[in-house]
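Internal ticket - ligand job 264, 2'-deoxycytidine-5'-monophosphate:
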Amino acid sequence: MLPTTSWNIGNQRSDITNQDSATYDREVFRMTARLTIAIDGPAGSGKSTVARRVAAMLGYLYLDSGAMYRAVALKTLERKIALQDDERLVTLAAESHIELKAPTAEQEAVGLKNRVFLDGREVTQEIRTGEVAQAASRLATIAGVREVLVAEQRRARQGGGVVMEGRDIGTVVFPNAELKIFLEASPETRAERRWKEHQEKGESLTLLEVLQEVRERDERDRERKVSPLVRAKDAVLIDNTAMGIEETARLIVFLANERVPSAP
Ligand code: DC
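stdout (structure tokens):
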């Protein structure tokens, strides 16, 4: 069984006794080590929920890189720019100012991941539509757009202490991340998770339709010429087909703990 972590940043440690103090010092040292954790994986692998949970357990900032692609996609649609006009899209991305912030408690309660600001305007809800997702997936194939957004993602890391999720975080964005995770699950399991989400939203897709969608998206993500979804050589592969969110998150926190340099 994995050890449970007791070093959440928000923990009240007033119950610490003398015999615990050496352990406590080590834990404080670990807490202040601001690691960069990269979590990549295909659609439905659970990476958003797991990444958010890991960030909460460590007191780290959670960053959803996909939201940046979605924000530029929203602007493209609003300005009615053709999705084939690569040159204009790269300029548009370069002229955009995108900021990711922690969600409010109310936003978190309804499953929103990051607060997203596009040129100073909050677009947290607007970017979560199917139309924006489709446009984002097209934008994500343009090398120039990726270059601009990768630079933004690197800036967003600030001094570390972040969990960033996406498709190319361990391979391109943070190749030197202290911990890289590649999250997998069987296509059937991923389709079932997505299908449940559709059901909750009142959308009536069959499981078979969702499985087909998952397979198509997998192929597009993995076959794409620019920054395809691949596991970084030094990423830890976690197949969570038979694991819950909490168990997966704990395993990642355990691995993060191992990556922290020893206390001086
Ligand atoms: O994770 P998501 O569905 O919000 O991502 C939106 C789109 O952006 C999706 O088509 C994949 C793409 N994306 C990417 O290519 N690289 C990333 N690091 C994150 C997302």
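Auto-summary: The CA atoms of residues 1 and 251 lie 10 Å apart. The chain has a mean pLDDT of 86.
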